[in-house]
């Protein structure tokens, strides 16, 4: 019993320390998960957002030129629509990235 | 961020696609007679303007009217497309026809030609209203012509009046004054780098041609048009004085032409090529419009020439030669 009392503080300290270390590790793991989730969310946002910005940048001049062409030749609407929608692939790829990262 | 020329050039490209292909011009040139020529032209997009020209007793006057109407319609359509800064640039490009018309009027008045004669030589394009040109064609002297154009003829009229006011009275003096005013206005109005480069080239070419024209008389720097890139005032005076060397190979080709008419032909071909180049390099600028205007002008000039050739039964070989020079 004397021996136990002698080692009690050390045991207590070890118990408290191990408990504290376990809590810290658990907290660290939780923080790491949160960081990863945050980075994934940012990546998903960038994939979708940059894809949309790229599509917008491409469709601006294409749309203006297509509107000019259709104003002179309405029968070319279908052909111009195809050219206009081709940059949409950028935002579709962005969507794919977005869902993969979520 | 948005470029207004994206829309305008989309439309102009479609207008350019409506221009007659070389095959149709060849068919028209190869027509057996005037009636067949009219039939070929009537099967093209020009048919809606041909009207009276295809009537039983119609002649060259009706054909000229029809071609002029088509040309004017194209120019008006082009002007209706552009707004804002592009509209100012298109107007600057159209000033070219004002200068051509002002020169035709000056030549006609100095030579004492009748107003009907002068009117048939005018180009129904540009920014000066047709009634003003008709009134100007009845002028009896250059001063009254300048006054008429200045009151309602816009910038070029003002340039002509200033030149007359400054004492210019010979044809060359007046023509150079008109060119100087025109290029000054154009360079002030045109923003696109490629189109400006084209105009600096045109100024160089014009300076070389004027210098060739001045040979044999006392060279004067007052005939020099500022704003060019490769031909300085010193080069201009040197060429006018009889020197036949210039650093630029294409300008050198103009100098080496055997006579002034051949030099003008070489110059015209070089400028045609330059306008095609600017159309390719200036996809989002006024280059496409510039190229379209030159092509449309050539199309009408060729049809007019073929029409005359067929009406007077000009031999096919002569007509082909004339067309290659057009």
Automatic annotation (TrEMBL), chain A:
Transmembrane segments annotated in the record for this chain: 46-70, 82-101
Pfam families with a match to the protein in the record: ATP-synt_C (PF00137)
Annotated GO MF terms: proton transmembrane transporter activity
Location(s) in or outside the cell: Membrane
InterPro entries in the record: ATPase_proteolipid_c-like_dom (IPR002379), F/V-ATP_Csub_sf (IPR035921)
Membrane topology designation: Multi-pass membrane protein
Keywords: Membrane, Signal, Transmembrane, Transmembrane helix
Superkingdom: Bacteria
GO cellular component: proton-transporting two-sector ATPase complex, proton-transporting domain
Sequence ranges assigned to domain V-ATPase proteolipid subunit C-like in this UniProt record: 42-101
Signal peptide segment: 1-22
Descriptive protein name: H+transporting two-sector ATPase C subunit
Species this chain originates from: Deinococcus aerius
TrEMBL record, chain B:
Pfam families per UniProt: vATP-synt_AC39
GO molecular function: ATP binding; proton-transporting ATP synthase activity, rotational mechanism; proton-transporting ATPase activity, rotational mechanism
Gene Ontology cellular-component annotations: proton-transporting V-type ATPase, V0 domain
Record's function text: Produces ATP from ADP in the presence of a proton gradient across the membrane.
Protein name: V-type ATP synthase subunit C
UniProtKB keywords: ATP synthesis, Hydrogen ion transport, Ion transport, Transport
Protein family per UniProt: Belongs to the V-ATPase V0D/AC39 subunit family.
Matches recorded under PANTHER family: V-TYPE ATP SYNTHASE SUBUNIT C (PTHR38682)
GO biological-process terms attached to the record: proton motive force-driven plasma membrane ATP synthesis
Entry-linked InterPro entries: ATPase_csu/dsu_sf, ATPase_V0-cplx_csu, ATPase_V0-cplx_csu/dsu, V-ATPase_V0D/AC39_subunit, V-type_ATPase_csu/dsu, V-type_ATPase_csu/dsu_dom_3
Species annotation: Deinococcus aerius
